[in-house]
Write a structure and sequence with these properties.
The protein is mostly beta strands. It has one domain. Helix content is 5%, strand content 38%. It is built from one helix and ten strands; from the N terminus they run ββαββββββββ. It has a five-stranded antiparallel sheet. The chain has a three-stranded antiparallel sheet with strand order 4-3-5. The two termini are 20 Å apart. The relative contact order is 0.19.
Length: 152
């Protein structure tokens, strides 16, 4: 969910969890999660959506990038059930689902699947965005099963 430069150590006042540290480039994405919106960059030259936030389009190298609202729907591309916490702060969360979700707009992102049992997650399962307020300043994007007709 973070670019390499956004991954940080525990934020001041946090319960010891590693939290994102937004950069000037990724700040609009994190402002979006706080507002419960999925914001993606889109290249004005080639029209492709981009994730993770960056200064250049990885497809055509254009600097002409805008921020757009995404629909928040996608499907599970791949996943694993984490049964042994990689960080002590996540010890109480196991088991949890670490997944790659392919958004309807095209980009894939690493996230968690929540609000369902880990054994119920499947590849190609339709999902929709949900937001988790980790601290008063940080809201993380996660996904949950999409109930009803899928439109991904």
């Amino acid at each position: 969910m973070t670019s390499p430069s956004d991954a940080g150590n525990a934020a001041p006042g946090s319960p010891g969890r590693p939290l994102p540290r937004p950069s000037p480039v990724s700040q609009p994405f994190w402002e979006g999660t706080k507002a419960r919106e999925l914001r993606l960059q889109r290249c004005r030259d080639c029209g492709r959506h981009i994730f993770y936030p960056r200064s250049l389009c990885p497809f055509c190298l254009s600097e002409s990038l805008d921020w757009t609202l995404a629909g928040g729907r996608g499907k599970v591309y791949s996943y694993t059930v984490v049964r042994r916490a990689a960080h002590p702060a996540f010890r109480d969360d196991v088991p949890y689902v670490l997944a790659i979700v392919e958004l309807a707009e095209g980009p894939r992102l690493t996230t968690n699947i929540v609000n369902c049992a880990p054994e119920d997650v499947r590849v190609d399962m339709p999902v929709t965005a949900t937001y988790d307020d980790i601290t008063p300043e940080v809201t993380l994007l996660k996904f949950e099963p999409l109930l009803g007709p899928a439109t991904t």
